[in-house]
Write a structure and sequence with these properties.
Layout: H1 2-15, E1 21-24, E2 30-33, E3 39-43, H2 46-66, E4 69-73, H3 75-84, H4 94-106, H5 111-122, H6 126-133, H7 151-165, E5 173-177, H8 183-192, E6 195-200, H9 203-215, E7 222-226, E8 236-242, H10 253-263, E9 264-277, H11 285-290, E10 298-299, H12 300-308, E11 312-319, H13 324-337, H14 339-345, H15 348-367, E12 371-379
Parallel strand pairs: 1-3, 5-6, 5-8, 6-7, 8-9, 9-10
Antiparallel strand pairs: 1-2, 3-4, 9-12, 11-12
Amino acid sequence: MKDVIRQLAEAMSAASPDAQFEVRYWDGTGFSIGTEPEFILHFKNERALSRVLSDAFMGFGESYMLGDIEVEGDIKKLFYLGFAIDFAERPMSLMLRIKLAFHFLRARNTIARSRENISFSYDIGNDFYEILLGKGMIYTCAYFTSPDNTLDEAQNNKLELVCRKLCLKPGEHVADLGCGWGGFLMYAAENYGITGVGFTISAEQRDYAIQKIAERGLSDKIEIRLQDAREADGLYDKVASIGMVEHMGNAQIAPVFERIAHILKPQGLAFVHTIGNEIPRPIDPWIDKYIFPGTQASPLTTMVEAAGNNDLYMIDLENIRLHYPPTVKYWLANFDANIDRIREMYDDTFVRSFRLYLEVASSSFSWGDNRLYHLLMTRGLKNDVPMTREHLVLPKSGTSPAGTSSEGGA
């Protein structure tokens, strides 16, 4: 088994000749690539080594969660090298594939199952997400107009960008499918004078959003419903979905876009912010089992086809992939600054698994196949949309470009 690890290390070195790292085993043996290791990969027992070789990243992730693997130094460099040799694409053992097949089947995002999947990820305590996300409570990629932007500034930039892409106007009625803790609708109501309805299937998100909406005096403008987005009702001038579609899986893309078209007024604008890929990719088994059950980053072509099949015409498409790593950098900083408190709230396995997820997420947008798409569509042809993207250029100050303080954002 150690020989296979050595072969993998040599493949990493061949893919990235400047890489320097060390591998250590439980029995005191090991080897080095280069003289100044950027990280040390430590297998603390033979079981961990066996799991990694038989089950690829699933084996690594579960071993790391248990403390059977430690990584000292720059763990992102390890993931960079893993992406360089397509480590995650290595075949898994037959037994694990059988187990995962049953898990994937059970975790499919039917209307009934989706609420369990979302509850697993989001109904774990709003106090944890306040630690992780800060006062904005926005759990999607931010938008950095300057490397000096704070997390709240960058998230306000993103909300402002969405408002501009949707060409929001006072008095318009807006639906937010998968509204999270209500941040977008609160921002849009305060800065653009809209009314809106948010749809979520997380009870804790709904309760938190209702409380914050009341505190900000917006209860007469914003309603939050505990309702699946695929069952959203009403008729709206604009529809937004920010970070929901990646939770649905490929099989649910068509129903989601069908529902968007169903509730959107003719010539209305719809906006989707979602993680995706250029081509179909397999479900990540570790992320699916331990972080986001039922999730799958769908191919861009699948989403564009679903839009077109429902009379939704693409007028703007953007990939903001490079904004994701700096967003996660802030989340990691918040996590690490409160790691002892988080461990007391949950346990060491949660701390290790969630921190691993954040590191993997950042790395997958830097070197892997994850993309972050903005899709802007009209229901039917609409000829009075802006002909350039000039209105989308935001200032670098980090303040709200709508002319109000960034403190008004969620």
